[in-house]
Structure formats: C-alpha cells, structure tokens
Amino acid sequence: MAIPSSYVSSIPVITGNNCKKWVEELELHLGLLDLELTLREFQPDPLTDTSTAVERTKFKKWTNAKRKCMLVVKKAVPEIIRGNVEIKDTTKEFLDVVKARFELHKKAETITLMTKLMNTMYDGNESVREYILGVASDASKLKDLGIHIDEEYAIHVALNTLPS
Predict the structure, then answer these.
(1) DSSP per residue over 11-49, as a string?
(2) Where in the chain are the domains?
C-alpha cells in the first residue's frame, strides 16, 4: 500500500512542547495506514529454510510495515533531533528513545520556567500589562507541563515585583 502524502504531511513535527500529542497523532496515522503492526507486535523470528508460508507472509508484512513506519517517523522528526537520537532497529524502540529524550527536555523546561517565575522582576523594558501577561503565560506553560500554578498566584507574584 502506498502512503498518501496527505497522511504524512498532516503529522505534526515534534517540538519540545508537543511530544505527547505528536505520539498520539503518529500512532493514529500509522494505524490508519495499517502500519502500527510494528508498534503492537514484536519482530518475528528470522526466516529459515523450514519456515512456513504463513511465517514468511507474516515476516514480509512486518518487515514492510517496519520500513514504511520508520520513513514516516523520520519525516516527522526534525534533522536536529534525529542527529541526537540513536537510530534503533524497530519503530517502537526509536519512539521510546525519542520520548525519553523529550522527557529530559520537559524537565529542563520545567526548571527553567519555575526559576523564571520565582525570580521575575519588572525591568521597565515592556508595559506593565505585557509583563503581567508574560508571567501568566509562564504559569500556563508550567500547567501544560503538569505543574499547576494558580493564575491568581502568578498575577500576585507579578504585581509584587512592580516598583512602588
């Protein structure tokens, strides 16, 4: 089965903020393309002279799905990330490595945003409104990362750092 380019182009490119959604979208598209076989089933044993026709068919289908799957996944992962992630034998292993890489990114981003929020000071380079919206935006980003900061608290922090 040929892979329609519309399927591949509709898969979002992974960034530091969309890893979970990216995996869901990728799994959906691979399922629609009938390629998720490599995510659900282990790699079949290598073929031998005594392999049955059913085993040969299963091996060929799995190998074909693996090849196409890796092409789709690599298309959805930017070169800069692919260069930092070890290419694995199966799509499932490759996705696990990518997820692990982004978990580290998520932790680093959480620490950066928490530090920024707790050490924020109004410097006068922007309007007070923009400053408060920026602090609220950082709190919202933390919420997306699983750290709930009440919006009222974030605004309170912003207001307390304004000059008297």
Answers:
(1) SPPP-TT-HHHHHHHHHHHHHHTT-THHHHSPPPPPP-T
(2) 5-106, 120-164
